[in-house]
Amino acid sequence: MAAQVPAEELKKLSIKEGANGNSKAAATSTAANGNSIEHESEDDDEDDHGTSAAAETGDKKKKKRKPRKKKKKSGASSNATAQSDPPRVLMSQLFPNANYPEGEIVEYADENRYRTTSEEKRHLDNLNNDFLTDYHHAAEVHRQVRQWAQKTIKPGQTLTDIAEGIENSVRALVGHDGLTEGDALIAGMGFPTGLSLNHCAAHYTPNAGNKMVLQQNDVMKVDFGVHVNGRIIDSAFTMTFEDKYDPLLAAVRAATNAGVKEAGIDARLGEIGGVIQEVMESYEVELGGTTYPVKPIRNLNGHTIKPFSIHGDKSVPIVKTNDQTKMEEGDVFAIETFGSTGNGYVRDDMETSHYAKKSDAPNVPLRLSSAKSLFSVINKNFGTLPFCRRYLDRIGQDKYLLGLNNLVSSGLVEGYPPLVDKKGSYTAQFEHTILLRPTVKEVISRGDDY
């Protein structure tokens, strides 16, 4: 989920001039497993007439009762050893000893090389075992769900069906459907599924009644989060169905990988931004006979991730800046980059769908009873995890818009409107979550796909 740079911060950027002279700045539930409750067929009626007839004829043989037939279970088998399609097999069933796969392990270099073999650092890593188990659990859920999504998403599907397909799969794999109070806080969606099309770069998910359909010519950013005990995996990719967009996707994928490579303990954030910018600006894409330079979207950033909070206190720019802040041991970062054929700058537009309770929300009196009751619902079901209007609909809330808008205007809840570049342009995104462990850097969300 993208972090946006405040407008005033853009003025402080020390930025390289671009080609056009412009600045670049997750308790198991039956529903979640996809298994239906087994029902026996009705008992066969006693054949009273047959029994009477047998007695009258002196036939001493008893009539055999037909065996009861059981309905077959639907969904994933309780002893499955491979993932189903769609994903419905609990991750804890596939990895019964909680030995979830690690991500990409990268040894530290130069002055941090000692960490790889340091007994002290290895001991610190071992102390974080529960922390790592939760992250590995969430990361494997993300990998399996997104690989299914990449295989099944096709033009002609509605955005609502795509989003709900991803979200239902995540909830099934962690075993928490989020329908009972507090269940979504144990494990589930780290934030709503973003399905931003074309010039819209981030923060778009369909609200109720949305009938938008994915088209053959669309460029769709798929950005979703998975959490287990508040440990959030934030990872995104871009889907297209026309080869002409390949250079755009290649530019952003390469830029993200460059940022991931540069990230590490003591790395300076502004310098990482410079590397990302240089890589992305080395690409161009031809669309409709016109060649466009691929520009980094300078007011979108990567960011640290905190427990139950998708945006921490450090930002990773995707253009060169003078920010000398260092990455530190124990930091969890979402390294995400956005490329555009437009202005390389986004603004708020369209109907808001994403919201989150502010972690530093002020203690203000609420006069609207609808706002008070909704705030209680948000606290009990989402805490500071981002949510969307579809999630409120799903747990039975209705007629909540007035109260929700009041919570936003009171400063208790933050609204995240969709972020768009100029109309007619195309934007792409790739993102990974990295852990700066004491002994190694782990690209926790890395998979065979990207």
Automatic annotation (TrEMBL):
Q: How is the cofactor bound?
A: Binds 2 divalent metal cations per subunit. Has a high-affinity and a low affinity metal-binding site. The true nature of the physiological cofactor is under debate. The enzyme is active with cobalt, zinc, manganese or divalent iron ions. Most likely, methionine aminopeptidases function as mononuclear Fe(2+)-metalloproteases under physiological conditions, and the catalytically relevant metal-binding site has been assigned to the histidine-containing high-affinity site.
A Pfam cross-reference name: Peptidase_M24
Query: Where does the chain bind a divalent metal cation 1?
Result: 223, 234, 431
Where composition is biased (Polar residues), the residues are: 75-84
Q: Which UniProt keywords apply?
A: Aminopeptidase, Cytoplasm, Hydrolase, Metal-binding, Protease
Q: Where is this region: Disordered?
A: 1-89
Name one process (GO BP) from the record: proteolysis
Q: Residue limits of the Peptidase M24 domain?
A: 136-344
What GO CC terms are in its UniProt record? cytoplasm
GO molecular function of the protein, one example? initiator methionyl aminopeptidase activity
Question: Where would you find this protein in the cell?
Answer: Cytoplasm
Provide the residue positions that the database annotates as binding substrate.
Answer: 203, 311
Q: Where is the composition biased (Basic residues)?
A: 60-74
**This protein's superkingdom?**
Eukaryota
Locations of Low complexity compositional bias? 18-36
Which residues take part in binding a divalent metal cation 2? 234, 303, 336, 431
Its recorded reaction(s) are: Release of N-terminal amino acids, preferentially methionine, from peptides and arylamides
Q: Which cofactor does it need?
A: Co(2+); Zn(2+); Mn(2+); Fe(2+)
Matching NCBIfam families, A to Z?
met_pdase_II
Write out the function statement from the record.
Answer: Cotranslationally removes the N-terminal methionine from nascent proteins. The N-terminal methionine is often cleaved when the second residue in the primary sequence is small and uncharged (Met-Ala-, Cys, Gly, Pro, Ser, Thr, or Val).
Family, according to the entry, reads as follows: Belongs to the peptidase M24A family. Methionine aminopeptidase eukaryotic type 2 subfamily.
Name it.
Methionine aminopeptidase 2
Q: Which organism is it from?
A: Zalerion maritima
